[in-house]
Structure formats: C-alpha cells, structure tokens
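Practice problem: predict the structure.
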Amino acid sequence: MPYRPRRQRDLERARCAAASVQAQGRPAIEVATAQIGAAFDAAALVNAFKLRVERSMRLGPQHPAVRARFGARAEVLRHRSLDAAITLAERWWRAERKAFQIASALGRGNRLSLDVLAELRLILRLIRRKRMRAEFPAIVAALCDDAIAEAAE
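Answer:
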C-alpha cells in the first residue's frame, strides 16, 4: 500500500463517511453531518496532534517557533540522558494533567502547557524509537543554543 500523507487520509475518511451515508439514500443534511462528524471525531483530533508534532520535527530545533514552544523544557533536559528525559517529561505531563483537571473543575483550565508536554513526550519517544540516542544531546543543545541566548541579553 503506497504512502498517503496524514492530511489526505483525514480527508478521505470524511469523504468515505459521507459516501456511506449517501449510499443509504439519506438526505443531504445527514450526508453533510456525517462528513463533519468524521472530520472532527476522536481520530481527527489524534491526527491533528500528530500533524503538529510532525510540523515541529520538520521545522527543526533551530526554528524560532520550536524554540519558543520547547526551549524552556529543553533547558531542564539539557544534561540528561534520553531515558531520563522521557521519564521526566512523563512526570511533568502527569502533574500538569492533574493540575489541569483541578483548574477545569474550578473553571480556569488552560490546555497550552498540557499540549506542549504531550507533544514533547511524543517527540522524545520518537527519538528513542528511531534510535537517535546519539543525536539527542545535539538536538537539545540546538534548542538551547547559547549563542542566541547571549545575543538576546
């Protein structure tokens, strides 16, 4: 089976949902509702998350948006091994998830830090899965680039 980009698979899934409802002879409003439902269901949320991670990895650690998103966390991970970084990111994510649940119960929840940590967890696990342990310190160093920090001062 040839490779199809994630975005293309998302669109195809929505079209297939609409086609199956249309094949049943349903009205156009039900066809549109099925297509919208497939475009915004749980699988679409997971794919959107993976697309954000893919974009960050494609941009690379030198890109300002990636540095802004992951730079502070990378500073803490700077002198750690990949396994220690994964463990620490898991702890951060669990603690942030609990804090978000409490804040949401009080009507003050903000998902940004939780989303950043979820992306960081996936990126770290991808680095481990792709056997890039040797490159990990260089990636973190690129995110924390001291030359740019000194120029900012």
